[in-house]
Design goal:
Strand order of the largest sheet: 3-2-1-4-8
Helix content: 40-55%
Number of strands: 20
Largest sheet: 5 strands, mixed
Structural class: alpha+beta
């Protein structure tokens, strides 16, 4: 499976006294220190730096924690050169011989080093009690720090310097672990032995003068010489031993005095990485996806991943609920505003209702009066047009004026039927104030009784409303 490219990496060095956090930004196959935080053991870590949120989906973050090495057992095993998965299977068969504790009660991992022996590789097996790991993880979880890898910084110091010269290499501890040192034994370019030694506190017997430095020098001499004799008996070490001390200037002066009593050929001093340098090396290995000794139990890694997924779901659901609540609140506020506006408008309408009714009533009355006035003038106009257009020998018998209409009755000489028609046309074309007076004029109806009787005629006219409503 292709590993995702990291965006940042955190390294936590936790002790009972204080906690030191380094935050690195990934830059291709290297890292760059962004900031570091030193806080008391009870002080909270910067949550934004260590916590994994939704940005983890596109900006992956890797958390590393350093397990104190005081309760870790280290063993060196020479095995055939195989891939890591097969190497782990080989170590599982030898674990009962390597572990000082029952297998169900330990957490273990391995760091692989090259060997000068052909088709051989060196494995540093790290073994620690499960109770120690769980107690350590419980403390850093209180600060919301969930590591993706649990490492031993002393191993990174050994791997970072890349030194492989034969002899004994001593790496003094710093800070809270200043009394602890890591000792590696190299022969023909291959790591043969590794051990962790803690200098004893000075004896506290009443009345007995004690030189603490001399007591520690004697303890260190006995432990180192026992390992040297065992290496000589096994055939991988030749006496005298060439000693190498990897430390800063101030630390090297103290430890050189401890080694002076038995280092026959003197001690060669090498500069050491400080804690920041070791953190940089550890983060760089994570960014490069290099395999390393990881003492984080698989069940803890699975639980951290599930908690992260659950946290994403809950925060996503919370965001949706929050947006919904905000939307409902906005809707209710808008509803109240519109209800208030509606009530105000209805109050205004109620206040104007009486006035509006009176206005309608007055308008209707005005329209009736205007219509009566228009019809009055229309009747006069009709009378004027009918009388002016009437031929001299015609007799107007009856003129009936009805709303929007006019009925005209009259008589004419027997032989004047054509004039009746012309009269009807003249009425149809009659205008008042430039507008046609009648909208429609029916053709005349004519009849007579007897040869000598007058010709009776009549027709109807429909008023043009626009001309009537002047």
């Amino acid at each position: 499976m292709k590993k995702k490219r990291l965006h940042s990496c955190n390294v936590l060095d936790s002790s009972p006294v204080e906690r030191h956090l380094w935050h690195f930004a990934a830059e291709r196959n290297d890292v760059k220190l962004q900031h570091e935080v030193t806080a008391a053991a009870t002080a909270p870590l910067p949550q934004k730096t260590v916590e994994k949120d939704w940005r983890e989906l596109y900006q992956p973050k890797f958390n590393i924690a350093w397990l104190p090495a005081s309760q870790v057992f280290l063993r060196v095993v020479q095995l055939p050169a195989v891939d890591r998965q097969e190497l782990i299977s080989m170590l599982e068969f030898q674990l009962e011989k390597l572990s000082p504790l029952p297998i169900p009660q330990i957490v273990w991992s391995a760091e692989v080093l090259p060997s000068t022996v052909e088709k051989t590789q060196t494995a540093i097996v790290c073994i620690v009690s499960r109770d120690v790991v769980e107690a350590f993880l419980g403390k850093i979880e209180e600060q919301n720090y969930q590591p993706d890898r649990l490492e031993i910084p002393q191993l990174n110091q050994i791997l970072a310097d890349g030194l492989r010269e034969d002899g004994g290499w001593i790496y003094p501890g710093t800070g809270p672990e200043s009394d602890l040192c890591t000792v590696t034994w190299w022969s023909t370019g291959t790591l043969q032995q590794i051990e962790l030694l803690r200098l004893p506190p000075p004896p506290a017997e009443p009345g007995t003068p004690v030189n603490p430095q001399a007591a520690r020098a004697e303890f260190l001499r006995q432990e180192l010489m026992q390992t040297a004799w065992a290496g000589e008996m096994e055939g991988w070490l030749k006496l005298p031993v060439k000693w190498h001390l990897v430390a800063d200037e101030s630390t090297a002066a103290y430890w050189q005095s401890l080694l002076a009593s038995f280092a026959e050929e003197g001690v060669e001093i090498h500069s050491a990485f400080d804690r920041t340098g070791i953190a940089h090396y550890s983060a760089k290995r994570a960014v490069r996806s290099e395999s390393a000794a990881d003492l984080l139990p698989p069940e803890f890694a699975a639980r951290y991943h599930q908690q992260y997924v659950d946290r994403l779901w809950m925060r996503g659901l919370g965001a949706v609920v929050g947006v919904y609540v905000i939307g409902v609140a906005i809707f209710l506020i808008a509803l109240r505003v519109y209800a208030f506006q509606d009530g105000r408008i209805k109050g205004q309408v109620a206040a104007l209702a009486t006035t509006y009714t009176n206005v309608l009533r007055l308008r209707e009355r005005a329209e009736v009066l205007q219509e009566q006035l228009n019809l009055k003038y229309a009747a006069l106009d009709c009378w004027k047009v009918i009388s002016e257009q009437l031929p001299a020998d015609f007799t107007l018998i009856n003129l009936i004026f009805a709303p929007r209409g006019l009925q005209v009755y009259g008589t004419a000489p027997q032989d004047q039927a054509q004039k009746v028609i012309e009269y009807n046309d003249a009425i149809r074309r009659a205008t008042v104030n430039g507008q046609t007076l009648f909208k429609e004029v029916t053709p005349p109806t004519m009849n007579s009784r007897g040869a000598s009787a007058a010709l009776n005629w009549n027709f109807e006219c429909q008023l043009n409303v626009s001309s009537a409503a002047r």
